[in-house]
Amino acid sequence: MTQRTCWRVELMTAVLPCCRRRVMTTAPPAGGGEYDHSASLLANVVCVVYDVSEPSSIEKIASKWIPLVNGHAERNYRLPIILVGNKSDLQCGSSMESILPIMNQFSEIETCVECSAKNLKNISEVFYYAQKAVLHPTAPLYDPEEKQLRPQCKKALTRIFTISDQDNNQILSDDELNYFQQSCFGNPLVPQAMEDVKMVVRKNTADGVRENGLTLNGFLFLNTLFIQRGRHETTWTILRRFGYDDTLELTDDYLYPQLRVPHDSSTELNHFGYQFLQKIFEKHDLDGDGALSPSELHSFFSVFPYTPWGAELSSTVCTADGDLLPLHGFMCQWTLVAYLDVHRCLEYLGYLGYPILCEQDSQTQAITVTREKRIDLEKGQTQRNVFLCKVIGPRGTGKSAFLRAFLGQSLEEQLRTPRAPSFYSINTVLVSGQEKHLIVSEKGKPRNLQTVI
């Protein structure tokens, strides 16, 4: 009776240049044995070692080892593989001619390194490329069979382009490219390097450069080129700078930075937040009429995964001609969000690229946390700029009409132009010569006064 033996799996900690990673090594017993599939489940990357001097060893890469590692995995969840051609000291030539067809056949193969365990040639390179496959994986970015960026990667890079296009003319100018380069890599491009980049794009795309600036297609082409040339760490640096994780989703740390709000304190946008939002408003106000049309508002929301404001917007803030959102109403809406749900406000600012465009650590720099209300009461004064007034009463007493009247809508206009209801209206009022924001909130008939206060 033949004894079934599994490969031995040993775990050790390797100190790599940028981090500590667990490196799993497997070694077969002398008499051979079966591959332990649980080993793959523990791994982030697999190095398949073959003998460069043995053609049969090369043949088994495709016929045995890769199917054993990834044979049961779905296409998008295959482990990255590094091919390691050992015993290069026994062969004068290279095995690459035989390896290239295998690399073309299996998209999960990241690279191939020939080495010699005997004289330690290229051993450190093996671990470098294994580390690179984990920290900067190709699979989430690029489909080698289709030879193009994956949809999720293209979507993320499109958002990054839109944020970086600060004047919204669909082109990255030299100044915008330099700002982008400085933000992602810490140094600007020298003029000659800038021209070289655009020359490469011109030669390879029909519409990659326009008016001496880089278009979205040109930007996507450049990132595709980086990946095809094995420089996918460049694209990963860009993605991570703009808040993306390894699955190309925005991280919680980026969208929801920690902000401590004491009990009975409130949250308001400060001058950093208002300056940023005014700049974004002007970016999308393409016709310069001081208001965002539905199409301009759609452009504004293009960097969001969903539309955050609904039809109730026109019943919440002042609008113009029914469907135009002036700067005043735009700022009021943001003031409302910052006051009612500051974490949602931080999320929205993250989508707009606030930390990158304002060169600040996080969106919390755009928020002021007020002191607690009890301190204001003790001192008999307040520094708050946003106040909440609750309107109470039974159904049918005109609370909704009162809220819309606060926005300057007469009863006749309300009857003539029905709008989606909103439980809040916000506008500015003058208090001792200073402009303050007042939020008016509609509540039903309370059971007792304490539920309102």
From TrEMBL:
Q: Which UniProt keywords apply?
A: Calcium, GTP-binding, Hydrolase, Membrane, Metal-binding, Mitochondrion, Mitochondrion outer membrane, Nucleotide-binding, Repeat, Transmembrane, Transmembrane helix
Q: Name one GO cellular component term.
A: mitochondrial outer membrane
**Is this entry keyworded Repeat?**
yes
Protein topology in the membrane: Single-pass type IV membrane protein
Mind telling me which PROSITE patterns this protein's record contains?
EF_HAND_1, EF_HAND_2, MIRO
- Miro domain location is 1-136
Name of one Pfam family that matches: EF_assoc_2
Catalytic activity as recorded in UniProt: GTP + H2O = GDP + phosphate + H(+); ATP + H2O = ADP + phosphate + H(+); UTP + H2O = UDP + phosphate + H(+)
- Ranges for domain EF-hand: 272-307
Location in the cell: Mitochondrion outer membrane
Organism domain of life: Eukaryota
A molecular-function term among this protein's GO annotations: calcium ion binding
What's the main place this protein lives?
Answer: mitochondrion
Record family assignment: Belongs to the mitochondrial Rho GTPase family.
Q: What is this protein called?
A: Mitochondrial Rho GTPase
Q: Which organism is it from?
A: Engystomops pustulosus
